[in-house]
From TrEMBL:
The keyword Amino-acid biosynthesis belongs to this UniProt entry's keyword annotation: no
Cofactors required: Mg(2+)
Protein name, as recorded: Flap endonuclease-1
UniProt KW keywords: DNA damage, DNA repair, DNA replication, Endonuclease, Exonuclease, Hydrolase, Magnesium, Metal-binding, Nuclease
Residue stretches making up the XPG N-terminal domain: 2-96
Species, as recorded: mine drainage metagenome
Length: 334
């Protein structure tokens, strides 16, 4: 991340934009952050989790309030190159579960809250509920054949969106022209498992500028990312972005750079090809529909125990946004 061109931004500055959102990324954040005081997720009257429903509903309306059109992209089958990352995440979750049980036994309330927020499962039911909600809101949904951030990045490559909303730097390796990070966040964020905070502000990462200021090609940026480490491979020990940049500029390509360090990266050619040509929907159609207001209110209030008094004004905002003629900034952005 130390070599990436980044600039501060605000939702207001991005008025009229169309943005692709890595849905798994954002739903995981909602499941982690939208919690009751005791650390358990929000639930409806039948005990089913609603943290993701609440997060998606209010976040989407926030985008609409700022004349931003969101397109949510959901993961398909993960690449088998990701098997090790998935296994490591499973081990970490099991460790957190064991620590949570211990914290409960010891009556450590703050630790219970902290550990609870790190144990999340994005189930098929959570995905189906999320897609159902978004469709009732008239918001486009794209089901990726594989990685969601890859499909979102392809939409950016094709010029169908102004940028990708994700915390994941891999989006740049997949070719996203603009990546929005911390897009609706401002202030301080607690580092998970640690007792300190960092200041965060909305920003965008610019791919073209990153390549230009570093004097590298997209192929070389992919090589740098792989050397540092991605979701699909472990990086080289003690090699950060700046060291990887220097190695690539000195040796020209990743294989020669790796040989100079006496190391190899397993399945390198497959990882490179995944970033160059990720599985994606070839001709994605993005359609913004009118919301189904009656069904939306019924779903949220009758089925998921939301307050009708609170929901109705937001549904009215969705209706107003759907009826507006906000011009897309796609042409002016690039």
């Amino acid at each position: 991340s130390g070599i990436v061109a980044r600039h501060p931004t605000t939702l207001k500055e991005q008025k009229g934009s169309v943005v692709a959102i890595d849905a798994y990324n954002i739903i995981y954040q909602f499941l982690s952050n939208i919690r009751q005081p005791d650390g358990t997720p929000l639930m409806d009257s039948s005990g089913k989790i609603t943290s993701h429903i609440s997060g998606l509903f209010y976040r989407t309306v926030t985008f609409m309030d700022n004349a931003i059109r969101p397109v949510y992209v959901f993961d398909g089958k993960p690449s088998n190159l990701k098997d090790q990352t998935i296994a490591e995440r499973k081990l970490m979750r099991e460790k957190h579960i064991a620590e949570l049980e211990q914290a409960r036994e010891l009556g450590e309330e703050e630790r219970v809250r902290s550990l609870s927020s790190r144990i999340n499962y994005i189930t098929r039911e959570i995905i189906d509920e999320s897609v159902h909600l978004l469709k009732l809101m008239g918001t486009p949904v794209i089901m990726a054949p594989s990685e969601g951030e890859a499909q979102a990045s392809v939409l950016s490559r094709l010029g169908l969106v102004n940028g990708v909303v994700s915390q994941d730097y891999d989006c740049l390796l997949f070719g996203a022209k603009i990546v929005f990070r911390n897009f609706v966040s401002n202030g301080r964020r607690k580092i998970p498992g640690k007792n300190f905070y960092v200041n965060i502000t909305p920003e965008y990462l610019d791919l073209e500028e990153t390549l230009r200021i570093n004097g590298i090609s997209q192929e070389q940026l992919i090589s740098i990312g792989i050397m540092v480490g991605t979701d699909f491979n472990k990086g080289i020990d003690r090699v950060g972005a700046k060291t990887a940049l220097n190695l690539i500029k000195k040796h020209g390509n990743i294989k020669t750079a790796l040989a100079s360090r006496g190391v190899e990266i397993e399945r390198l050619d497959e990882i490179m090809e995944l970033f160059r040509n990720p599985p994606s929907v070839k001709n994605p159609e993005i359609r913004f529909e009118k919301p189904d207001e009656k069904s939306l209110v019924k779903y949220l209030c009758e089925e998921r125990s939301f307050s009708e008094e609170r929901v109705i004004p937001y549904v009215e905002k969705i209706r107003d946004f759907a009826g507006s003629t906000t011009q897309s900034r796609l042409e002016s952005f690039f």
